[in-house]
Design brief:
2 copies of one chain form a homodimer. By secondary structure, the first copy, chain A, is mainly β. Helices cover 2% and strands 34% of the residues of chain A.
């Protein structure tokens, strides 16, 4: 059952936002495999999206346990970075983004608040030194846990399209 | 500590593949929020990547609990689909892909085997009916659990670059 959130709710005061009751247990688990270091210490400081980070230099530290997994990554110009927005609410199913002012479903937004708060950025890979990558194009809080790194493959990941992001 | 896998290992017989001991506990959990329906019932049948699925029509069924989260998604031409490769090994840190024949780190491969087996496809959104999306451009096994849907934003997600996927 979904529950409209009261305007006086501490975390989501905007009318129109709806939360769901989440299942009592997780279906599987994730390991935090490293840490992302960025210049942003509060949510208010974070850029709205990776493109707006304006090339700020960030670093990704992969835990020693997994460091061998980086072998070969230096051959790629860009990497897909998956990370866990561990401070976000997971129960919001409709949200009212400030820039829209009306409610929209969570899956049509890039908000960190979602049942599985997994974010992705396509980051430019600048340098690899041991278990540390230097990158540009990440928009998350300093200290965000890393979930995965993948090579970015333009032939698979980039959609060439003359359409704007919205059809209408 | 990493452990070379013996050639007689049942699941990963290829020399050069290395596994790590995973932590004893997960750091957080994921909910399976729906199911992906595809024409592929075995790994051997699956296309090598979404581009090679040649437009096969697949469907994504979002659990009723989360269905309200789809509001507004029909406005987008493409969606980022995150899903959980729940049958993949999670401990392989170097792997020998058949098409390469040499060992490479897991994070420089798109293999489903990785510490957090979260895959992503950029799928073309063809139709939305209630809690079911019809899409093209997914390469996973029938029945794969869904983790997240996001609007694909070319201005943020597509890297315009004249570089081939490999720098060298």
């Amino acid at each position: 059952m979904s529950t409209p959130i009261k305007p006086d709710d501490e975390y989501a005061a905007r009318p129109g936002e709806v939360s769901v009751e989440l299942p009592g247990a997780f279906d599987s688990g994730v390991y935090f495999i490293g840490t992302i270091h960025t210049p942003w210490r509060t949510r208010a400081e974070c850029p709205k999206n990776p493109r707006e980070s304006k090339g700020a230099i960030c670093s990704i530290e992969v835990d020693e346990r997994y460091a061998q997994g980086l072998a070969g990554i230096e051959a790629f110009t860009h990497v897909v970075v998956l990370y866990f927005m561990d401070q976000a609410r997971r129960d919001l199913i409709t949200q009212v983004p400030r820039h829209l002012g009306i409610a929209r479903g969570t899956f049509s937004l890039r908000s960190p608040a979602r049942p599985n708060p997994i974010a992705l950025s396509v980051a430019k890979l600048l340098k690899v030194e041991g278990n540390r990558l230097t990158v540009a194009g990440i928009d998350c809080l300093d200290g965000t846990p890393l979930l995965d790194l993948k090579p970015y493959l333009p032939t698979v990941d980039a959609i060439e399209s003359i359409l704007p992001p919205h059809k209408k």
